[in-house]
Amino acid sequence: MKLSRSTLSVALLAALAAPAAHAEVALDVIGNSEVSFEGLVQADFYSYGNDLKNLNVDAPDGSDSDNELRRAELVLKGKGPGNFEWVLGYDAKDDKFLDVNVKYKFGNNANHFIQVGQFKQPNSMEELSSTKNNDFIAKGSITNTFGVARRVGVGYYYGDVNWGVNATYFSRELTRNRKHGNGFGLRGTWAPINETGNILHFGLSHMDYDADLGGTAALNTGDIVSFSARPLADISQTLVSTGNITRSDRVATTGFEGLWVRGPFKLQGEYMKTSVQRYGGSPDVDFDGGYISGLWNITGESWGYKSGTPTTPLPDNPGLGMWQVGLRYDTIDLNDGTGNTTTGATTGVLGGEQDAWTVGVNWYWRSNFKFMLNYVKVDSSKWVGGTTRRYVDDNPNITEVRMQFYW
Questions:
Q1: Tens digits of residue pLDDT in 53-88
Q2: Total domain count for the chain?
Q3: Sorted alphabetically, which keywords does the UniProt record give (predicted)?
């Protein structure tokens, strides 16, 4: 759904005119379950400083900007009966189900439960954190490219306030024609320091799933997978992409993560390596990437910690709001092969490399509004065959704005 600039302005004014609310709206008690309602609406605007490729998703219309309603999430939650909790979420913008699951807490302990249904898989601290509290408008390249998000499955979590172990078995997404492939996920976290305003966290995760995207047996392509990364702009064209990797069997991703919070400062980083196991004589391929980011709450607030992820507070002064400034370095490498500049012949997979710096300012106003401004500088390089026979650089810059309303 495209939005004109005037439409975005009207949407923003309507949001500002809405009465303040809490993070969720209590509805009723039904069948001994306390039912509440949550929502999230996000609208983005991007202005591109294109280099070679026009990043506009409607290219070649000549425009150097994009705007779109990114999310329109509606979520019902229930606590009870007893030790049960449930959630039913839907994104009206993307026409897909979000979290749809039932959780049973052993001994009513939030750190010991079993979960059945669709939920986020345990493989990325950034992915597992709440979307409404993203530090930057776009998540890291590895999170969107290698991470496994929501899938239908069963999960078991056991831990304490400063450590946790999560194991899942999953299949496809609940929404038809979305990602699929059976697999399992594991994540362990440990916070040797976990005090108010003073947190140190380490995590390790591993995902393994079937490459089940349906190649054509008659053409000897077998199952296929593909990986691509946008230039830290969620609705833009991609600059690096592997294309279809044929005769793929299994995909395995191992991730390392770290987090340090000291008062109003937060330092966070993740690294992922993805391996594609292939058959029929095709060589296995490996890709990797990571990010490191720093965030400063100018207004002095600090972060909390829950189930191996940081939690974002409300502003200490709702009228002033909470102001943040951040810096992130992001890199992803989708190359595992070589290109011959003389003959043009290639081996392996040459999807390209991309590095990016992001500078951001966030303003959380009162309890329900967030405004974000990012500037992204991208350096990418990708092999181009044919008569070109060389790696070609494409180095755009992007200015991004997000307006968000949530309850």
A1: 999 987 656 688 999 999 999 999 999 999 999 999
A2: 1
A3: Signal
